[in-house]
Write a structure and sequence with these properties.
The chain is built from twelve helices and 15 strands. It is α/β, with parallel strands linked by helices. α3 packs parallel to α4.
Length: 383
């Protein structure tokens, strides 16, 4: 019996073949994280804030030893707030000059431009700023730690419904972002028993929208949906009030830039957005806010928080993938590492969960402009 057992064991080993050792990780000398931001042009405010959050995170992680001893390096390119062509030029520079395999992207147009290039070159993308619904699934390697515009607008409808209003007028960006918000909210609002009495498109970069505002006024809505982003938000708020309209206005963004443009006419404006709150019960968020203000001389906007957080997401995924050895620093391996456990620590507090569509699930905040600043009202669970 003993001889038979030994023989069976030998046969089993022969069929199993030799044990395959895990390939050692192919470590680069430094992990370069690329970024494509609006560092110049009309939207350069975004690029400044995003890059400041990114740089702070890179420095913090490096001070703690990097990813298993490998330091990070931020490499930032400028898409100038323009469309896909500038994004393509930027990602080509990141690949050819710096050899990046993980890129932080922003704005819908540039992101859509670089998506097929990311697929062809196995590059991981994370978006913390762009809000266009077309970005979902644009690349097989893209994920988002930013709530997208259509989700925020649906939350705005929930707020409007709770106010008992029925007739909606809309001012929206005439681009992918604004058009997709309108396409999302119209059927939802009508199904809920509301009506859409005016829908007026405003070109991105417009300096005059009096014609559109006058048409909305003529329709006499119960409230106005503001489906646009800075700096057009500030101008729209200003002109709506200067045209004598007193209806509630609900939107999806308000920044310090808009406050400067709109002045007192922004009072009472309601908007939903990602909500970063530095508080005693959230140690990481409190530490980040203090470090950001010390370094940059101002409190962090949520855009800074998103790109700060995005660096930590990439570092976490690189560490996970590295443990399995081989060539781990690429889109395929980083995305696989994420979905093996889609829960990741969030600087907003607790953890965020990346859904199957690549969008991180977060609750959003409802704000009301008081004294030129957005004052948090409550959290909204978007349905």
């Amino acid at each position: 019996m003993e001889r038979l057992t030994l023989l069976a064991a030998a046969v089993a080993v022969a069929f199993a073949g030799p044990a395959v050792a895990q390939e050692p990780p192919k470590d680069p000398p430094v992990i370069k994280i690329g970024a494509i931001f609006a560092m110049s042009g009309q939207a350069s405010w975004y690029g400044t804030v995003m890059s400041q959050g990114m740089r702070l995170a890179v420095d913090e992680i490096n001070a703690k030893g990097g990813v298993d001893g490998i330091k990070l390096e931020a490499v930032i390119e400028d898409h100038k707030g323009a469309g896909g062509a500038e994004g393509v030029a930027a990602i080509n520079r990141l690949m050819s000059i710096h050899g990046v395999k993980a890129v932080m992207t922003s704005f819908t147009g540039p992101t859509l431009g670089i998506a097929p290039i990311a697929d062809q070159n196995n590059i991981f993308l994370i978006n913390g700023g762009g809000v266009g619904v077309k970005m979902i699934g644009a690349s097989k390697y893209i994920v988002h730690n930013r709530s997208l515009a259509s989700d925020l607008a649906l939350g705005a409808l929930q707020v409007a419904q709770s106010m008992g209003v029925r007739k909606m007028g809309q001012l929206h960006w005439k681009n992918d972002v604004g058009d997709n918000i309108v396409a999302t909210v119209d059927p939802v609002w009508k199904k809920a028993g509301g009506s859409v009495v005016a829908t007026e498109a405003v070109p991105q970069g417009a300096t005059n929208m009096d014609t559109q505002v006058a048409k909305v006024r003529a329709a006499n809505p119960d409230f106005i949906g503001m489906w646009m982003f800075t700096p057009e938000v500030g101008l729209a708020l200003k002109r709506v009030r200067e045209f004598g309209m007193k209806q509630p206005m609900i939107g999806v963004e308000f920044t310090a830039n808009d406050a400067q443009i709109a002045g007192a006419t922004a009072e009472g404006f309601l908007y939903l957005n990602d909500y970063f709150k530095a508080s005693d019960d959230q140690p990481w968020s409190k530490q980040f806010a203090a470090a950001y203000e010390k370094r940059w001389g101002q409190a962090p906007e949520f855009y800074a928080a998103n790109y700060y957080e995005g660096v930590y997401v990439i570092a976490e995924l690189a560490g996970r993938a590295r443990k399995k050895g081989g060539d781990y620093l690429n889109g395929e391996r980083l995305k696989a590492a994420l979905y093996e456990n889609p829960r990741v620590d969030s600087v907003y507090g607790g953890q965020m969960t990346f859904q199957a569509n690549g969008v991180a699930q977060k609750r959003v905040g409802l704000f009301k402009v008081e004294g030129g600043k957005g004052v948090f009202q409550k959290f909204v669970e978007v349905k």
